[in-house]
From TrEMBL:
<dbReference type="InterPro" id="IPR036426">
    <property type="entry name" value="Bulb-type_lectin_dom_sf"/>
</dbReference>
<feature type="domain" description="Bulb-type lectin">
    <location>
        <begin position="21"/>
        <end position="153"/>
    </location>
</feature>
<keyword id="KW-0808">Transferase</keyword>
<feature type="domain" description="Apple">
    <location>
        <begin position="331"/>
        <end position="419"/>
    </location>
</feature>
<feature type="transmembrane region" description="Helical">
    <location>
        <begin position="461"/>
        <end position="483"/>
    </location>
</feature>
<dbReference type="InterPro" id="IPR003609">
    <property type="entry name" value="Pan_app"/>
</dbReference>
<keyword id="KW-0067">ATP-binding</keyword>
<dbReference type="GO" id="GO:0004672">
    <property type="term" value="F:protein kinase activity"/>
</dbReference>
<keyword id="KW-0732">Signal</keyword>
<dbReference type="InterPro" id="IPR001480">
    <property type="entry name" value="Bulb-type_lectin_dom"/>
</dbReference>
<comment type="similarity">
    <text>Belongs to the protein kinase superfamily. Ser/Thr protein kinase family.</text>
</comment>
<keyword id="KW-0723">Serine/threonine-protein kinase</keyword>
<dbReference type="GO" id="GO:0106310">
    <property type="term" value="F:protein serine kinase activity"/>
</dbReference>
<feature type="domain" description="Protein kinase">
    <location>
        <begin position="518"/>
        <end position="802"/>
    </location>
</feature>
<dbReference type="InterPro" id="IPR024171">
    <property type="entry name" value="SRK-like_kinase"/>
</dbReference>
<dbReference type="GO" id="GO:0005524">
    <property type="term" value="F:ATP binding"/>
</dbReference>
<keyword id="KW-0812">Transmembrane</keyword>
Length: 805
């Protein structure tokens, strides 16, 4: 660790010698008649406690903005966290630009051409001063203490604790990660008094949070207010006049640095960190599925997810990307758009949608009828075709293809109109997918040109000499900091661990959960990881509190696991509400499921054929989200009926995902099973043969669960622990039994009838049952590469109705 720190210090020192330091403060106040020069890196205002600095910040190639940034922990050029900028859209030159506090009480920012780029437009007869306070607010005040102007009244992309967002202000994102100019995303109070996120692009604008399909009260917002005010307090609680309230995961810690920022991807995130930590941790975010954010990939483009690269943009067939470095421009047609309507046909994109811009909507239409409607409409670029849940399909012709996304869990398809000649010439042309990473060399070029002054050798020498002196000063500071912090390293984890908790959680105390469960009185479930109790939270919500058996992890490691789980959000995954990490106690708080688990209902007549098929489909969607859609790649490793919970409408919610990570990783469960995960009867052969573990282990377990729902036979009934490969054949006898019945029979109907659970009493759909069994058998193949993905399984089950037609 010391060697690593030494290397780190050396690299930091070297960078400080080569680059002018940003954090060597010389001022706490600027008086009337004084100025700060862009050419003097020591011309910086620093808050009394040293947390914030204000000065000229590099934003491009010889381009600077007057900004406020966090100066604790010590940061170097380009790595400081900026919270405010005066001239983000009109940077100044690195020569002869300055910020001046005039004796008249006005603050002006001038560039090299002596043009006023920015000003406070204030005046005062009494002496004035400019300073940064300990909250990050740049204040201009007179000798009587009256505030004439403050940066808190004109935020850029960040809201700091105790800074108000009002009807007159808004947060506007940066353009890109390395481009600080105003971007396309905005947080503001709308005319109905509701706080909203808006995509405000060059051509169109649209609200995407809260969902535009929701009435305000359905989104938990109130329009019955007129104050239009929102603020984060020093403890991490955000409250808005429209009833939007949330807390940071580290709520209650007043010494934590926090900031609410609208990021370049359009998501609103609350960040936290301790002063000694260089890393900001997301402690809340508005949107868990980033592809639902409007405008990310531009017109005619689809946003999707990939386990290796995360979010990506794709041009569908027939379209090409406009700008490889900026996906907000989207895609453009490669074909001639003036072709006659009779010469058009359609390509089919599954699990995809383009939100909004419907020309009209038509219910109870066949696919052919919907195609005819779009072909007869001149400005129709394609149509959405979706099962509406009422027994028929709906058709939505699209005038524009915007806000596109393609995710395996989406229930609907898009048909894009293309010339027939183009489709046949470019048959099965693959998508052109490009990651949303920003270009590395992204700089702002000034529109105006400046005459560069001649610099002789003496001037260059003096500049380098001054920088060297500053470097020596910083070296001394860093060495003292390193020696001091090294002795405190063991205590940092205990103070920082909670920062890893995920967005939207509440950190409960052990006493709170003990009271909520009436001293863990009502047990509703028990497993290898822990015991689950029913409880009532102080806000009246009924919860399931899981008390973990083992507490071998440290707090920070435990919260890192909770962070992974908590970021997941899907209608078929159980929702986590909070956690407890206190001494040796480790507890997780979930929503309570009224109908318990699938295991408890398999022998009930309430679980008819329709419910079983819906459970199979919903479970597939939830697992597909874990494998392919969420930003974290998560394997469940223990898919089984007890871990599939049923809500009041018997809709499935997968639980205990990721909790296998909370077990002791070094423990040997059996001499033949090292680091084993799962439950006997549902485990894939990979576990037994010590083969590499992939997402296909969950696919196998899912297939076993589906066979159990179909046949009513448990794969674990009467099985003792498996000690050998030979005995493993007994464990998977239900699979072999179904395969034998299929092999022996001459017709599909006869062997299906033999294997179906007698509890169904013959009340099932033959074709759906056939599909379900075929999918299950496909999932339980010995060769993992021969198994489908969970996305493919969900797609097969979801589109069975269309296949029938």
């Amino acid at each position: 660790m010391k060697l690593h720190m030494s290397s780190l210090c050396f690299s930091v020192v070297l960078s400080l010698i080569l680059l002018p330091p940003l954090s060597s403060a010389t001022y706490q106040k600027l008086s009337g008649g004084s100025s700060l020069s862009v050419e003097n890196p020591r011309d910086i205002l620093v808050s009394p406690n040293g947390t914030f600095s204000a000065g000229f910040f590099p934003v491009g190639d010889n381009a600077y903005a007057f900004a406020i940034w966090f100066s604790k922990p010590t940061c170097v050029v380009h790595n400081c966290t900026v919270v405010w900028m005066a001239n983000r859209d009109q940077p100044v030159n690195g020569r002869r630009s300055k910020l001046s506090l005039l004796g008249t009480g006005n603050v002006i920012l001038t560039d090299a051409a002596q043009l006023n780029v920015w000003a406070t437009d204030t005046a005062s007869l009494s002496p004035v001063q400019l300073q940064v306070n300990d909250y990050g607010n740049l204040l201009l005040s007179n000798s009587q203490g009256t505030i004439l102007w403050q940066s808190f009244d004109s935020p850029t992309d960040t809201l700091l604790p105790l800074q108000s967002l009002t009807r007159y202000t808004a947060l506007v994102s940066k353009r890109r990660k390395a481009n600080y100019s105003s971007g396309f995303y905005k947080l503001f109070f709308d005319d109905d008094n509701v706080l909203r996120l808006l995509f405000d692009g060059p051509d169109i604008s649209s609200v995407y949070w809260p969902g535009s399909w929701l009435v305000s009260w359905e989104a938990g917002r109130s329009t019955y207010n007129s104050s239009r005010n929102a603020m984060i307090d020093s403890l991490g609680n955000f409250s808005s006049s429209d009833d939007l309230i949330f807390r940071s995961a580290d709520y209650g810690a007043s010494w934590i640095q926090r900031r609410l920022t609208i990021d370049v991807d359009g998501n609103l995130r609350l960040y936290s960190r301790e002063e000694r930590d260089e890393t900001w941790v997301v402690s809340w975010q508005a949107i868990s599925q980033p592809c639902t954010i409007h405008g990310l990939c531009g017109e005619n483009s689809l946003c999707g997810y990939a386990p290796s690269t995360g979010r990506k943009c794709s041009c569908p067939e027939g379209y090409k990307v406009k700008n490889q470095t900026d996906w907000s421009y989207g895609c453009e047609p490669e074909f001639d758009v003036s072709v006659n309507a009779s010469e058009f046909s359609f390509i089919h994109l599954r699990n995809a949608e383009f939100y909004g811009y419907d020309i009209s909507s038509f219910n109870n239409k066949t696919l052919k009828e919907c195609e005819a409607i779009c072909l007869q409409t001149v400005n129709c670029k394609g149509f959405q075709y979706k099962f509406n849940g009422n027994g028929f399909y709906s058709c939505f012709p699209k005038g524009q293809l915007r806000n596109g996304q393609q995710t395996p869990g989406f229930d609907g398809d898009i048909y894009i109109k293309l010339p027939k000649a183009y489709i046949s010439y470019n048959n099965k042309k693959p998508f052109k997918a490009i990651s949303l990473d920003c270009p590395r060399n992204d700089t702002i070029m000034l529109e105006r040109s400046y005459a560069k002054s001649l610099e002789n050798g003496i001037v260059k020498f003096m500049l380098w000499f001054a920088s060297a002196l500053g470097g020596v000063e910083i070296i001394s500071i860093i060495l003292v900091w390193w020696l001091t912090s090294a002795s405190q390293e063991k205590n940092i984890v205990a103070q920082q661990g909670y920062l890893l908790a995920a967005a939207g959680f509440k950190r409960f105390t052990y006493d709170e959960l003990k009271e909520a469960t009436q001293n863990f009185n009502e047990e509703i479930g028990r497993g290898g990881v822990g015991t689950v109790y029913k409880g009532m939270l102080p806000d009246g919500r009924v919860a399931a509190v899981k008390r973990l058996n083992e507490a071998n992890q440290g707090e920070a490691e435990f919260l890192a696991e909770v962070n992974t789980i908590g970021k997941l959000n899907h209608m078929n995954l159980i929702e986590m509400w909070g956690f407890c990490a206190e001494k040796k106690h480790r507890l997780l708080v979930y929503e309570y499921m009224e109908h318990g688990s699938l295991a408890e209902n398999l022998s009930s007549r309430e679980l008819d054929w329709q419910k079983r098929y819906a459970i199979a489909l919903g479970t597939a969607k939830g697992l597909a989200y874990l494998h392919d859609e969420c930003l974290e790649w998560v394997l469940h490793c223990d898919v089984k009926p007890p871990n599939i919970l049923l809500d009041s409408g018997y809709q499935p919610k997968v639980s205990d995902f990721g909790l296998s990570k909370l077990l002791d990783r070094g423990k040997l469960y059996n001499s033949s099973f090292s680091k084993i995960r799962g439950t006997r009867g549902y485990m894939a052969p990979e576990w037994v043969f010590n083969r590499p573990i992939t997402s296909k282990v969950d696919v196998y377990s899912y297939g076993i669960v589906v066979l159990e729902m179909v046949t009513g036979l448990s794969p674990t009934k009467g099985i003792q622990f498996v000690h050998s490969i030979a005995e493993r054949e007994m464990e998977y006898r239900s699979v072999n039994w179904v395969k034998e019945k299929k092999k022996e029979s001459n017709s599909m109907e006869s062997w299906i009838t033999e294997i179906v659970d007698p509890m169904l009493e013959g009340n099932y759909d033959d074709q759906k049952m056939e599909t379900l069994v075929e999918v299950a058998l496909h999932c339980v193949q010995e060769d993992r590469d021969a198994r489908p993905t969970m996305s493919q399984v969900g797609e097969r089950l979801l589109h069975h109705r269309e296949n029938e037609n």
